[in-house]
């Protein structure tokens, strides 16, 4: 390694832009120097205050002086300011590292006998070579501040005591570490509910995914058979539930299955049969939810699998006929593997989506009926995501909000879905073959 590139990178590490001056890139040097001055001012004046606010979350809440309410510290604002301060600090540090790398790279050019480009030529060259990156800068900043920032902000709540008894600005909130997770898992008030809701969430996700996927596969294969006439008509009929807005379908089904005045129970009474507590009994409620979800989900799988069936080469079936294979063998050895290969990633996504299938549960049962031994904020058909919704004070539980517990559940859902999705994706053949193509 030659000395010039190391020398200029060391100078830029001491004073931003100094290495660029040695490399005779003066405009760039001025810009980097101004960034360093701005960074020093920021780290000396603004950053310490906001960072300490994030660490302490405030020292004095609102107080009353001479009958007048005075707002001192607001933990939520301090958390926001602290996160923004960390993001800005990260950007400044990234520019500092970029300044060192830039000086080093241009120093290497000089060592090889090339001349460095002036600022405008280098900017033009970079804009042509890195055009996609320039286009992505603005969306990336948008994602940073409007997606990642709120996500981190919500995650931090899980490590505080942010609940109804600690609502800013009247009260400050404090960092409590993993107390929220311990409360969910170990505390009697919540642990029984947490384990049962988690178990039902897993069962629901598996059953809902399997029933809609294989139900859609069955319908698609039956319609695709040679002896079936009016194929377009049957496909249109089965697609109608998907064409109707989901919330309308769910509300219609909720009224149809109403135990007191629903048409289904009225027909059963007319036939002299007992009425069914579709949504008023925990077991029946779970069965009813799965049944209605099949009505909504099967058309999606049917459309997807119908498209795949049309791409399977007919030569494979003709060869199977020559070998004397029956219909079941052709399905098991040709149709099913081809469908699973093409739809494995989508099947994983459907499973992950069913874990967070908020609409079906909320619009049909609102998590009810009440489960024996459950915390008042949860019902026997609640998923983790609907229980999270209620804990945040947005549901109809009538209980005070527990933002920290809601955030803790959100983190658990994210970890579970991310783990299952990553492992499943990497084990699918379609994923492995895409790696081989690359």
Strands in their spatial order, largest beta sheet: 1-2
> What is the CATH-assigned architecture of the largest domain?
Orthogonal Bundle
Radius of gyration: 30 Å
Give the SSE order as H and E letters.
HHHEEHHHHHHHHHHHHHHH
Number of E-type strands? 2
CATH level-3 fold name of the largest domain: MetI-like fold
Question: What is this structure, in a nutshell?
Answer:
The chain has 18 helices and 2 strands. The protein has 438 residues and is mainly α.
What characteristics describe this protein?
mainly alpha; single chain; 18 helices; two-stranded antiparallel ribbon; 2 domains; MetI-like fold; 438 residues
Folded structure, characterized:
- This protein has 438 residues and is mainly α.
- The protein has two domains: 3-177, no CATH class; 181-437, MetI-like (MetI-like fold).
- 72% of the residues lie in helices and 1% in strands.
- The chain has 18 helices and two strands.
- A two-stranded antiparallel ribbon has the order 1-2.
- Strand 1 (63-65) and strand 2 form a beta hairpin.
- Helix 8 packs antiparallel against helix 14, helix 9 (231-243) packs across helix 12 and helix 10 runs parallel beside helix 15 (358-364).
- The protein starts with a helix and ends with a helix.
- Residues 434-438 have low confidence and may be disordered.
